Fold this protein.
Amino acid sequence: MKANPVFTLNLPTKLIFGCGEISKLSTETLPGKKALIVISSGNSMRKYGHLDKVTEQLVLNKTEFEIYDHILPNPTKGHIMEAAEMCRKCGCDFIIGLGGGSSIDSAKAIAVMACNSGDYWDYVIGGSGKGKPVTKVLPIVAIPTTAGTGTEMDPWTVITNEQCQEKIGFGNELTFPKLSIVDPELMISIPPKYTAFQGFDAFFHAAEGFIANIATPISDLYALEAIRLLYKYLPSAVHDGRDLKARAKVAWASTLAGMVESTSSCISEHSMEHALSAYYPTLPHGAGLISLSLAYFETFRNDCMKRYMKMAEVMTEKKSNRPSDFIDALKVMQKECGVYDLKLSDYGVKREDSTRLMQNARDTMGGLFSFDPRPLTDDEIIEIYDKSYK
């Protein structure tokens, strides 16, 4: 961060946070009369009663709805276009994203295409996207049932163009949700492995945003508190999913990390992971980030030493004298959450992929590299992939 920062703060989303707060959906003034509810293609939203809770509240609020339930863990452009067409045909005038980051991200992208002609990739910036301006978007309501992306408090949506293996983040001031309801009680059913993957996604949003060269005083506040909470409570949430205190702390940390995304930015670790899961869509985003993280953060160890030591101090509650303390604390956290020995090879990734992954990361989300503490060379990126491979 610069010594004399100049920045703008604009977080236009109304946030309702707390256990049981999903009930507020019945009394809130909603941004439309008929919602398209966007959920995943799996059965969890129905199995655990989340969809029923939301629809019951909408009925009480005298709001009509339709349901689109085809979203994949790595959402695709094809489904965005299909859902946008359904939205128009059914006369929906706002979108509810219910579920994990994939459903809420998809809700944002659908909100764009419900109001704009052509193909979603006409508007995406990066890769083969054409970067056309977006001037109108349907209102979005975000109801996360996972704690990881923080997408409920930022404008970003990450969608994969399955035709050309490009996974790109996109958004603007119009794609902030109008309303977000974060109820930790909706998160107790998440399995341990995915609790860890999602929690580390939030952790890296915060850590990357803290060392980004566009970090601001307000993003630093959000980032350090998210890092502190996740280090302390994520292992508890992983080991006992019904520990509601731990769930609530992790959920708040994830929301804070989303606010980091709105006041600073992710950096190239996310570009590099998007390349991985663009080619290997069964790789969970958080798992990819975990696999890259030790080699990635080691690369910048001597470039932002004070910031590494500050992160180590909020994690361990001990004085740090060397930047490696952060790397060591990150290893401890991964071990406590049972993800230290993740293998990219388990998801089909091959050792010889490094060069094409580097090029994909540069081509599709090269903008994030400009926020790194210092410029990375192509050889350094390839080396990070090589060191992360197991």
Summary: Residues 217-239 form the longest helix (23 residues). The longest strand covers residues 64-71. The chain has a mean pLDDT of 97. Strands lie at 14-17, 34-40, 64-71, 94-99, 140-144, 157-161, 166-170, 179-182.
